[in-house]
User: Fold this.
Amino acid sequence: GIQVEQSPPDLILQEGANSTLRCNFSDSVNNLQWFHQNPWGQLINLFYIPSGTKQNGRLSATTVATERYSLLYISSSQTTDSGVYFCRRTTDSWGKLQFGAGTQVVVTP
Amino acid sequence: ETGVTQSPTHLIKTRGQQVTLRCSSQSGHNTVSWYQQALGQGPQFIFQYYREEENGRGNFPPRFSGLQFPNYSSELNVNALELDDSALYLCASSLAGGPSYNEQFFGPGTRLTVL
Assistant:
Protein backbone atom coordinates (compact mmCIF):
# COMPACT_ATOMS: atom_id res chain seq x y z
CA GLY A 1 0.00 0.00 0.00
CA ILE A 2 0.89 3.66 -0.10
CA GLN A 3 3.60 4.35 2.45
CA VAL A 4 4.21 8.04 1.84
CA GLU A 5 1.06 10.00 1.14
CA GLN A 6 0.97 13.70 0.31
CA SER A 7 -2.02 15.99 0.40
CA PRO A 8 -3.51 17.82 -1.26
CA PRO A 9 -2.45 16.58 -4.72
CA ASP A 10 -3.07 20.02 -6.21
CA LEU A 11 -3.25 23.50 -4.76
CA ILE A 12 -4.06 26.81 -6.43
CA LEU A 13 -3.20 29.90 -4.41
CA GLN A 14 -3.49 33.58 -4.95
CA GLU A 15 -0.27 35.50 -4.38
CA GLY A 16 0.03 36.41 -0.72
CA ALA A 17 -1.98 33.48 0.59
CA ASN A 18 -0.75 30.96 3.15
CA SER A 19 -0.95 27.20 2.77
CA THR A 20 -0.13 23.92 4.47
CA LEU A 21 1.08 20.78 2.70
CA ARG A 22 0.98 17.44 4.47
CA CYS A 23 3.04 14.27 4.26
CA ASN A 24 1.81 11.15 6.05
CA PHE A 25 3.92 8.02 6.36
CA SER A 26 2.77 4.56 7.29
CA ASP A 27 5.60 3.56 9.60
CA SER A 28 8.71 4.87 11.26
CA VAL A 29 11.05 7.30 9.59
CA ASN A 30 14.80 7.73 9.91
CA ASN A 31 14.89 11.03 8.18
CA LEU A 32 12.58 13.18 6.15
CA GLN A 33 13.25 15.84 3.56
CA TRP A 34 11.08 18.32 1.74
CA PHE A 35 11.94 19.36 -1.81
CA HIS A 36 10.65 21.82 -4.38
CA GLN A 37 10.89 20.69 -7.98
CA ASN A 38 11.08 23.55 -10.42
CA PRO A 39 9.67 23.41 -13.97
CA TRP A 40 13.06 22.26 -15.30
CA GLY A 41 13.05 19.21 -13.04
CA GLN A 42 15.64 20.34 -10.53
CA LEU A 43 14.90 19.16 -7.00
CA ILE A 44 15.80 21.86 -4.53
CA ASN A 45 16.30 21.06 -0.86
CA LEU A 46 13.92 22.86 1.43
CA PHE A 47 14.26 21.07 4.75
CA TYR A 48 15.96 18.05 6.26
CA ILE A 49 13.68 17.46 9.22
CA PRO A 50 13.42 14.02 10.87
CA SER A 51 11.69 15.68 13.83
CA GLY A 52 10.87 19.07 15.26
CA THR A 53 10.33 22.38 13.52
CA LYS A 54 12.51 24.46 11.21
CA GLN A 55 12.00 27.77 9.50
CA ASN A 56 13.65 29.32 6.48
CA GLY A 57 12.21 32.65 5.43
CA ARG A 58 8.59 32.24 4.36
CA LEU A 59 8.78 28.47 4.61
CA SER A 60 8.67 26.32 7.70
CA ALA A 61 8.27 22.62 8.37
CA THR A 62 7.28 20.43 11.27
CA THR A 63 7.70 16.68 11.61
CA VAL A 64 5.94 14.73 14.34
CA ALA A 65 7.60 11.35 13.92
CA THR A 66 5.57 9.67 16.68
CA GLU A 67 2.37 10.55 14.82
CA ARG A 68 3.89 9.83 11.40
CA TYR A 69 3.37 13.10 9.61
CA SER A 70 5.18 16.18 8.46
CA LEU A 71 3.81 19.58 7.45
CA LEU A 72 5.24 22.23 5.15
CA TYR A 73 3.96 25.76 5.57
CA ILE A 74 4.17 28.38 2.87
CA SER A 75 3.38 31.89 4.01
CA SER A 76 2.79 34.96 1.84
CA SER A 77 3.08 32.82 -1.30
CA GLN A 78 4.76 34.19 -4.41
CA THR A 79 4.52 33.10 -8.03
CA THR A 80 8.05 31.67 -7.73
CA ASP A 81 6.68 29.18 -5.19
CA SER A 82 4.87 27.39 -8.02
CA GLY A 83 6.03 23.87 -8.74
CA VAL A 84 5.78 20.43 -7.21
CA TYR A 85 6.58 19.86 -3.56
CA PHE A 86 7.78 16.42 -2.52
CA CYS A 87 8.49 14.81 0.80
CA ARG A 88 10.95 11.93 0.93
CA ARG A 89 11.75 9.58 3.79
CA THR A 90 14.09 6.74 4.61
CA THR A 91 13.01 3.79 6.69
CA ASP A 92 14.88 0.55 7.14
CA SER A 93 18.54 -0.15 7.66
CA TRP A 94 19.23 -0.30 3.92
CA GLY A 95 17.81 3.17 3.60
CA LYS A 96 15.07 2.48 1.14
CA LEU A 97 14.21 5.95 0.02
CA GLN A 98 10.59 6.77 -0.73
CA PHE A 99 9.07 9.87 -2.23
CA GLY A 100 5.47 10.88 -2.01
CA ALA A 101 3.53 11.60 -5.20
CA GLY A 102 3.91 15.33 -4.66
CA THR A 103 1.69 18.39 -4.31
CA GLN A 104 1.41 20.54 -7.43
CA VAL A 105 1.24 24.19 -6.34
CA VAL A 106 0.22 26.99 -8.65
CA VAL A 107 0.45 30.55 -7.33
CA THR A 108 -1.45 33.08 -9.41
CA PRO A 109 -0.70 36.82 -9.47
CA GLU B 1 31.91 23.65 -3.08
CA THR B 2 30.90 21.85 -6.29
CA GLY B 3 27.31 20.67 -6.55
CA VAL B 4 25.98 17.46 -8.07
CA THR B 5 26.38 17.31 -11.83
CA GLN B 6 24.90 14.89 -14.33
CA SER B 7 25.57 14.12 -17.97
CA PRO B 8 24.22 14.13 -20.53
CA THR B 9 21.30 16.52 -20.10
CA HIS B 10 19.15 14.84 -22.71
CA LEU B 11 19.42 11.54 -24.52
CA ILE B 12 17.39 9.76 -27.17
CA LYS B 13 17.74 6.01 -27.64
CA THR B 14 15.82 3.27 -29.36
CA ARG B 15 14.25 0.23 -27.82
CA GLY B 16 16.77 -2.55 -27.10
CA GLN B 17 19.77 -0.25 -26.88
CA GLN B 18 21.93 0.30 -23.83
CA VAL B 19 22.59 3.61 -22.08
CA THR B 20 25.06 4.95 -19.53
CA LEU B 21 24.27 8.00 -17.42
CA ARG B 22 26.88 9.75 -15.30
CA CYS B 23 26.86 11.62 -12.03
CA SER B 24 29.50 13.51 -10.11
CA SER B 25 28.70 13.82 -6.44
CA GLN B 26 29.02 16.96 -4.39
CA SER B 27 32.54 17.37 -3.05
CA GLY B 28 33.00 15.55 0.26
CA HIS B 29 30.04 13.23 -0.30
CA ASN B 30 30.54 9.47 -0.34
CA THR B 31 27.05 8.15 -1.14
CA VAL B 32 25.18 8.34 -4.43
CA SER B 33 21.57 7.39 -5.07
CA TRP B 34 19.76 7.10 -8.39
CA TYR B 35 16.09 7.72 -9.04
CA GLN B 36 13.74 7.37 -11.98
CA GLN B 37 10.98 9.95 -12.35
CA ALA B 38 8.27 9.29 -14.91
CA LEU B 39 6.18 12.20 -16.10
CA GLY B 40 3.72 13.35 -13.45
CA GLN B 41 5.04 11.04 -10.75
CA GLY B 42 7.37 11.20 -7.81
CA PRO B 43 10.93 9.90 -8.12
CA GLN B 44 11.32 6.15 -7.64
CA PHE B 45 14.43 4.87 -5.87
CA ILE B 46 16.59 2.67 -8.10
CA PHE B 47 19.66 2.00 -5.93
CA GLN B 48 22.30 3.55 -3.75
CA TYR B 49 26.08 3.22 -3.69
CA TYR B 50 28.33 3.75 -0.71
CA ARG B 51 32.09 3.36 -0.95
CA GLU B 52 31.81 1.71 -4.36
CA GLU B 53 29.28 -0.93 -3.31
CA GLU B 54 25.54 -1.12 -3.82
CA ASN B 55 23.93 -0.96 -0.37
CA GLY B 56 20.26 -0.52 -1.17
CA ARG B 57 17.97 -1.22 -4.10
CA GLY B 58 14.40 -0.44 -5.06
CA ASN B 59 12.07 -2.51 -7.26
CA PHE B 60 14.02 -2.33 -10.48
CA PRO B 61 15.11 -5.29 -12.64
CA PRO B 62 18.76 -6.36 -12.97
CA ARG B 63 19.08 -4.62 -16.35
CA PHE B 64 19.45 -1.47 -14.23
CA SER B 65 22.97 -1.57 -12.87
CA GLY B 66 25.46 0.88 -11.52
CA LEU B 67 28.98 1.66 -10.52
CA GLN B 68 30.63 3.99 -8.09
CA PHE B 69 34.24 5.03 -8.57
CA PRO B 70 36.95 5.84 -6.00
CA ASN B 71 36.26 9.56 -6.46
CA TYR B 72 32.59 8.77 -5.57
CA SER B 73 31.27 9.61 -9.03
CA SER B 74 28.76 7.11 -10.35
CA GLU B 75 27.24 5.58 -13.45
CA LEU B 76 23.79 4.19 -14.09
CA ASN B 77 23.60 1.60 -16.86
CA VAL B 78 20.37 0.41 -18.40
CA ASN B 79 20.41 -2.53 -20.80
CA ALA B 80 17.75 -3.63 -23.27
CA LEU B 81 15.92 -0.31 -23.11
CA GLU B 82 12.13 -0.39 -23.09
CA LEU B 83 9.69 2.38 -23.96
CA ASP B 84 8.71 2.66 -20.28
CA ASP B 85 12.29 3.55 -19.40
CA SER B 86 11.63 7.03 -20.79
CA ALA B 87 11.93 9.28 -17.76
CA LEU B 88 13.98 11.84 -15.92
CA TYR B 89 16.87 10.13 -14.14
CA LEU B 90 18.04 11.89 -11.02
CA CYS B 91 21.21 11.42 -9.07
CA ALA B 92 21.58 12.51 -5.45
CA SER B 93 24.63 12.59 -3.22
CA SER B 94 24.96 12.63 0.53
CA LEU B 95 27.52 12.19 3.26
CA ALA B 96 26.60 9.05 5.13
CA GLY B 97 26.51 5.29 4.98
CA GLY B 98 24.51 2.59 6.69
CA PRO B 99 21.21 3.06 8.44
CA SER B 100 21.29 6.80 8.93
CA TYR B 101 21.18 8.99 5.88
CA ASN B 102 21.87 12.64 5.86
CA GLU B 103 20.58 15.27 3.53
CA GLN B 104 20.54 14.37 -0.13
CA PHE B 105 21.44 16.92 -2.78
CA PHE B 106 20.18 16.37 -6.30
CA GLY B 107 21.67 16.93 -9.70
CA PRO B 108 19.69 18.51 -12.56
CA GLY B 109 18.81 15.13 -14.06
CA THR B 110 19.14 13.40 -17.41
CA ARG B 111 16.02 13.22 -19.54
CA LEU B 112 15.99 9.90 -21.41
CA THR B 113 13.61 9.28 -24.29
CA VAL B 114 13.29 5.75 -25.68
CA LEU B 115 11.72 5.48 -29.13
Remarks:
- The two ends of chain A are 38 Å apart (CA to CA).
- DSSP finds no helices and eleven strands in chain A.
- Chain A has a mean pLDDT of 90.
- Residues 88 and 99 of chain A are 4 Å apart (CA to CA).
